Amino acid sequence: MIKESLIHQAFEVAVERYAAVGVDVHKALNDMQKISLSLHCWQADDVSGFENQGNSLSGGIQVTGNYPGRARTIDQLRADILKAKSYIPGRHRLNLHEIYGDFQGKKVDRDAVEPKHFESWMQWAKVNDFKLDFNSTSFSHPKSGDLTLANPNDEIRNFWIEHTKRCRLISEEMGKYQNDPCMMNLWIHDGSKEVPANRLRYRCILEQSLDDIYSADYKNMKDCIEAKLFGIGLENYTVGSYDFYLGYGVKKNKIVTLDTGHFHLTESIADKVSSLLLFTPEIMLHVSRPVRWDSDHVVTLTDDLLDLAREIIRCNALDRVHIGLDYFDATINRIGAYVIGSRATQKAFMQALLDPIRLLCQYEDESKYFERLALQEEAKSLPWGAVWDMFCLQNDVPVGESYINEVERYEKEVTGKR
Ligand SMILES: C[C@H](O)[C@H](O)[C@@H](O)C(=O)CO
Ligand SMILES: [Mn+2]
Predict the structure, then answer these.
(1) How does pLDDT run across 89-102, given as a tens digit for each residue?
(2) How is the cofactor bound (predicted)?
(3) Do the annotations mark residue 297 as ligand-binding?
């Protein structure tokens, strides 16, 4: 247990150090309090959901590991999410996939899902101070195959169009219920293992499907479209590539989702933020950690993540960027995985909010490039950790590593007994 008086002392020193470079720590703390993450429900159960159809995970994604204790029922999933939330400072959102509906043990196919299947989620979220976001689910279904919304087969394509339309309606109802727009993400795995004979054909079909899906206007939900470099088993061609969705988003005023695992490994996601902000309405993020490929490792505080957070703050775009998480690791304690990734993301934003931006901009205006580089370097070792600790203390969540023992206790008492 870290002594509270030490946290206060370190914080006072940090206030002074940051003031010397023109940064108001109290304002940074205040801004930090307003940042909500959208926690992905699927870390708790390895993207299984509650359809009870016995479908294994398919559609270009894969979870590795078999750590004991995954959530198997809606009650277990909710309990695990609340547990994770208790170690994450601030107020947050929860991101549901369609397969997590409250189906009460009945088989409800994807083209028959209705808002009523998410009523209990809406009530639960309200009681537990979450706002909900939503995703259509095109994977792990007998009709998933290699092509869903881009499928030339009318029956299969119309099935998925119907599913996605229904998901928009569910999102609209969620948004209305919570009096805050529900962000609905659309990601499909459609693609091909080998080079197709005609790439354009499938992209034309996808464009038409999307136009049909988006023909209804809603007020309480926002549409986001997520590209991917490739899915597993679909390595040569992805119908919904970044260029495709960027073009569609700009033309049709849709929000592009940037999943940080969905690009070439040396591509900077941070650099995309300012361009997207100019030409699309808002940005949805899926913060992930690719290791050699889109491996969805637990998010940690990497330079890439810091760059991304800094870019959002420097663009003054917190009100236009939605911060969702997207990773799944079944090799370690799943609640711990939530906490590590969420806190890492928050730490990146904490550091970004403490950046001496005004002074850096001043140096740049005056063409003082040595001074700019020197300050960028020195800022890296300013005592941001003391401000982060204070943020945790103020939010009544464990400071530093003290959550480790608590996660272990929950494993011993709850998840380990499943
Ligand atoms: C389960 C998610 O929807 C999925 O991870 C998607 O967002 C994605 O990133 C697929 O690679
Ligand atoms: Mn994603």
Answers:
(1) 999 999 999 999 99
(2) Binds 1 Mn(2+) ion per subunit.
(3) no
Q: Give the active site residue among 207, 296, 304, 411.
A: 296
Question: Which residues 6+ apart lie within 8 Å of 207 measured at CB?
Answer: 248
Residues in the chain: 418
User: Is 409 a member of any domain?
Assistant: no
- Predicted TM-score of the model (pTM): 0.98
> Is residue 331 helix, strand or coil?
coil
Question: Does residue 415 sit within a domain?
Answer: no
CB-CB contact of 36 with 93 (8 Å): yes
Return the residue whose CA atom lies nearest to atom 7 of ligand 1: 187
What tokens does 316 get?
């003054």
Mean pLDDT of the chain: 97
Task: Supply the range of the domain harboring residue 323.
Answer: 35-356
Ligand 1 pocket by Cβ (under 6 Å): 42, 47, 61, 135, 187, 226, 228, 259, 286, 294, 326
CATH of the domain at 69: 3.20.20.150
Please say if 40 is a catalytic residue.
Answer: no
**What per-residue confidence (pLDDT) applies to 1?**
75
| DSSP letters spanning 127-192 | HTT-EEEEE---SSSTTTSS-STT-S-HHHHHHHHHHHHHHHHHHHHHHHHHTSPEEEEE----EE
Strand pairing of 182-186 and 221-226? parallel
Contact 255, 294 (CB under 8 A): no
Nearest CA to ligand 1 atom 11: 61
Provide the greatest CA pair distance for the chain.
68
Q: Is residue 405 part of a domain?
A: no
Q: Would the annotation count 264 as a binding residue? A: no
* 346-358 confidence digits (pLDDT tens): 999 999 999 999 9
Task: Give domain status of residue 191, yes or no.
Answer: yes
| Residue 284: closest CA among 40, 2, 30 | 40
Whole-Å CA distances, 136 to 124, 141, 169, 171:
20, 12, 11, 10
